[in-house]
What does this fold into?
Amino acid sequence: MSTEPPRRPFSPRRVLFHDLLACGALVLWVLAVTPPVLTLTGEYEFAQSTQFCLFAIVIPALLVVGGPWRWFNLASLDEPIVDSDGHAIAATHSRPLDRWVRGRSVRKGYRRAVALLLIFVAQAILWRSAPVVDALIRHPWLSIVESFTLVVGGALFWLELVESAPFRPTTARPYRIGVAAVAMWTVWVIAYLMAMAQNTWYSGFRHVSGRLFSLAVDQQVTTALMWFISACALLPIIFSNLNRWLQSEEDPDEELYQLVRRDRSRGFFGTNP
It folds into this structure.
């Protein structure tokens, strides 16, 4: 029989909620690259860093949790077609995206998760580095390039952390906990180093006149926002996976099932494995 877990039906309320999340992500994306937000990013460090967090964390998370893949009428969202023996049959005329979804679901993604994590870390360091941010201050249109690289990389990264039908995480829960924690700590370390610096890293903000508050206050607010946004997005992933992992470990029925399987494989019941 097929081992694929049964799909939970999409209720109208659930579909509406997920569509609102995905649409909200797109609205945030547009707002973040247009005035007045785009103007503020050239004047205040906290606005620049908040824009980065939206691109790298918030918008990808909302897109993946919202699951806009239904808008593309993926065949993978339908119930699997099975033969007389109960084995799933792949659609013969499925599109490339459908084939990618099905191929991804049958392969473990440990290496893929690590690769996407490294891309997330590298992009965070790159787009928060002083030369790049100073370039963003001088040329605001570069924010569009920043948004596409961070949102696309972030969405692929979040597919390894949460379920977004028809996509499912292909790594074990402890692995997801570690990956999410490293991503969050990366943002925290960058924010901490910014807060501990004597002066702001970015020389472009020093030449802005008519500021509402000082560079020092701007720097502290920036650090607090980066910590807060990354924690709100990634801590629930860490604790929810930890809670479910501990529950499965403490399930006596699951432990008994594993024990019976182990005993049978050793020929305890007098049967060949």
Summary: Confidence is low (pLDDT under 50) at residues 1-6, 268-273. DSSP finds ten helices and two strands in the chain.
